[in-house]
TrEMBL record:
It holds the Pfam family Molydop_binding. This is Molybdopterin dinucleotide-binding domain-containing protein. InterPro entries: Asp_de-COase-like_dom_sf, MoPterin_dinucl-bd_dom, Mopterin_OxRdtase_prok_CS, Prok_molybdopt-oxidoreductase. Keywords: Metal-binding. One of its GO terms (molecular function) is molybdopterin cofactor binding. GO terms for cellular component: membrane; oxidoreductase complex. Residues 36-115 form the Molybdopterin dinucleotide-binding domain. The lineage of its organism: Bacteria, Pseudomonadati, Pseudomonadota, Gammaproteobacteria, Enterobacterales.
């Protein structure tokens, strides 16, 4: 962290949304969109571990980033299990496989915290 000019924990204010206001005015691209609450729980095999992205561990899951979504929201957005979806907000975007589940309440979506895209699992 010292290489980046930080030695102690520092407060960083939220992003100024005025700087991305042009992005908010972009019309829809024809695909269905819906605002959902976004949760980031710990991933199943990755708490305090660097071994969550090796080939053996990736075979225990779907092998990449996944987004959990409720059956109700998926039906409304015409998403079926294992579809590729794009999740975005003012801070960025990600593409992942959809996991349609009744375990997720309507109006909410989840992706595992600290999922890393590396050369090994991007190929």
């Amino acid at each position: 962290m010292r290489a980046f000019g930080e030695s102690l924990v520092a407060y960083r204010p939220p992003i100024d949304t005025r700087s991305v206001s042009e992005m908010r005015q972009i019309p829809p691209n024809g695909f269905p969109e819906k605002a959902l609450n976004f949760l980031t729980p710990h991933q199943k095999w990755g708490i305090h571990s660097t071994y969550s992205e090796n080939l053996l561990m990736l075979t225990l899951s779907r092998g990449g980033p996944i987004v959990w979504i409720s059956e109700t929201d998926a039906r409304e957005l015409t998403i079926v299990d294992n579809d590729w979806v794009e999740v975005f907000n003012a801070n960025g975007a990600l593409t992942a496989r959809a996991v349609v589940s009744q375990r997720v309440p309507p109006g909410m979506t989840m992706i595992a915290m600290r999922y890393r895209i590396t050369l090994r699992n991007a190929l």
